[in-house]
């Protein structure tokens, strides 16, 4: 959803100017202040953790998608329009491949923010989960268990980050090869006599 909102705002100058200040303002606010509302709506179960992680992820992904869209070379957009591509094909063939790097950075940041969001929700209100255990053990001065939970959190975070980097590597490799082909074509065109 965040990618779709970012594409919509990136492609519409009017709506971007209207909504971007509010998105940046909400993104800079600590999401923990929304926890009471989230718990009132979704309860104290897994649904509230999902909602909190979705809220934490939404803003960095949306902002990086907007920034990635604004960095697309206008020539690529003009080529797509000259071939009369519809909006779905423009997104699939022009926009997403051209904004792959900022989008992947935003998604990686979003995953980290989701983990932080879930842990903060557990620390604040939950009675189960790693965040709740961390607070319970540290309040009882159970040092070895506190360190054990911290190591588990670190291992989970490092594993998720590693898996995400493995998933994005083929796409970034494809982007580098496309950039190399474009550079070679530009060089060939420059050397060709008029």
TrEMBL record:
PROSITE patterns: ABC_TM1. It is a multi-pass membrane protein. Pfam families: BPD_transp_1. Its main location: membrane. It comes from the Bacteria. One of its GO terms (biological process) is transmembrane transport. The chain crosses the membrane at residues 22-46, 58-79, 100-125, 145-164. GO terms for cellular component: plasma membrane. The keyword Kinase does not apply. The keyword Transmembrane applies. Keywords: Cell membrane, Membrane, Transmembrane, Transmembrane helix, Transport. It is found in: Cell membrane. Residues 1-164 form the ABC transmembrane type-1 domain. SUPFAM superfamilies: MetI-like (SSF161098). InterPro entries: MetI-like, MetI-like_sf. Belongs to the binding-protein-dependent transport system permease family. This is ABC transporter permease subunit. It comes from Oryzicola mucosus. The lineage of its organism: Bacteria, Pseudomonadati, Pseudomonadota, Alphaproteobacteria, Hyphomicrobiales.
